[in-house]
Amino acid sequence: MSKQAYMRVENIVKKFGPFTALNGVDLEVHAGEVHALLGDNGAGKSTLIKILSGVHEPTSGTIYIEGQPTAFRNPRDASAAGIGTVYQDLAINQLMSVTRNFFMGRELTSRFGTLRMDEMNQIAHDEMLKIGINFSDPTQAVGTMSGGQRQTLAIARAIYFGAKVLILDEPTSALGQKQQMEVLKTIKRVRARGDIAIIFITHNEIHSRLIADRYTFLALGEVLGSGTKAELEGEDIRRLMAGGAEIKDLEQELAAI
Question: Which end of the chain is more exposed for a tag (fewer CB within 10 A), N or C?
Fold first, then answer.
């Protein structure tokens, strides 16, 4: 490695009874990079991110954080180590405000137990503005936001509460193209900070090619191929689903930030 990865996993194996979901998986993520994790259904992506998030413990193998071997017994351990996971369902209450969702379970209170709403409103507004979403009214209901904006809210929340590795589980799925581009632009802004590593789980190879710096391809619980964008250029590990003209159009849109 040219530089130390913030998080690295070596030879991760996960068995559920006689079934082997992961078999010897290696992965490393670097600050200031987007690492795309690709694979079809059943490839092992969900199992791997649950291990990285502390939901499952590996049967064998080692997770390293800043070079030190680490064990996650539960999601709280992973969160304390700087792992922030944004799942597809987002864990967002659409009837509650942007601010209440941002601080859900971590509300700021006064010494008398009352909510410090003005302070929370300002923080929610400022943190979302940092990654490209400007809400004039953070008290508005989340249900009024677009799907892309809700993803941005979940990402901003994870970063504010200490994520150094941001795991994004299919963040562009079930969104229209405009909203997909909103999410990709948010990811690009987060990468530009330089202090956060991003794992981008996706089925969409176009999106991975647009935004990723490093790739790991899983198939049936094993690594089919991995490397940086430069290392994989021109190789046929996976065929991308779109022609060069469409990709160039999207690249131009992303470049206009």
Answer: N
Domain ranges of the chain: 7-93+147-255
The domain over range 7-93+147-255 is classified in CATH as 3.40.50.300: yes
Average pLDDT across each block of 10 residues of the chain; the chain has 257 residues. List them in order.
Answer: 79 96 95 92 92 96 95 94 88 88 92 92 92 84 88 92 95 88 93 95 86 91 87 53 50 73
